[in-house]
Write a structure and sequence with these properties.
Elements (H helix, E strand, L loop, with lengths): L1 E2 L5 E6 L13 H20 L2 E8 L12 E11 L3 E12 L4 E15 L11 E2 L3 H24 L8 H7 L12
Parallel strand pairs: 1-7
Antiparallel strand pairs: 2-4, 3-6, 4-5, 5-6
The structure holds coenzyme A (COA).
Length: 181
Amino acid sequence: MKTIAESETIYTELMIPSYANFGGKVHGGIILSIMDKVAYVCASKHSGSYVVTVAVEGVEFLSPVEVGDLLTIKASINYVGNTTMIVGMRTECFNPRTSHTRHTNSCYFTMAAKNDDGTLKEVPGLIISNHQQLVRFCEGKLIRDLSKKKREALKNNFAEYKVEELKELCSLEKCNVEFLK
Ligand SMILES: CC(C)(COP(=O)(O)OP(=O)(O)OC[C@H]1O[C@@H](n2cnc3c(N)ncnc32)[C@H](O)[C@@H]1OP(=O)(O)O)[C@@H](O)C(=O)NCCC(=O)NCCS
């Protein structure tokens, strides 16, 4: 068993001009890449092993990240399964000229622990020591269950549906189905 504090990770990076897109804002992909590394640090500290990213849930960019911002990512283990961990990530941007901080993103990285031979490794349990940690653990369990249900639903093989059935499914959508002859 390990406490959440043992693996809690906070990382700050300056958003430099080479991170910007054509609109002058920081690329979402750059932020995701930094988040992936922070999730790695947090999960490898908890598991004491090499880890891999399995899934990312709930990424939403609430407001743009500007060049010159100080991007801070706070990561902690919210939930542990048998071989996987859900790392809760909160991203904030601090503008040093205005001293204004914005919450720009919250999401969940599922990371799996691996042995040196590539097999999955059991991770330590979590010592939960306050109400907020308990709430996050329950949210993590919900995310895991919903993610499993989503995967099951997506196994639905639409390619085997009749065209009329597919058209019916899309009847209220913003599309016009006209196959080219
Ligand atoms: C994801 C992976 C670990 C699943 O392996 P598997 O043997 O098919 O997995 P299992 O069905 O036995 O499940 C193992 C664990 O992964 C979890 N899992 C599997 N697929 C998942 C998914 N899509 N999302 C979230 N969790 C998932 C399971 O819930 C289980 O968790 P638990 O041990 O904590 O209960 C494996 O496919 C893998 O290693 N993928 C590559 C990951 C990688 O290399 N990432 C780097 C990206 S370049």
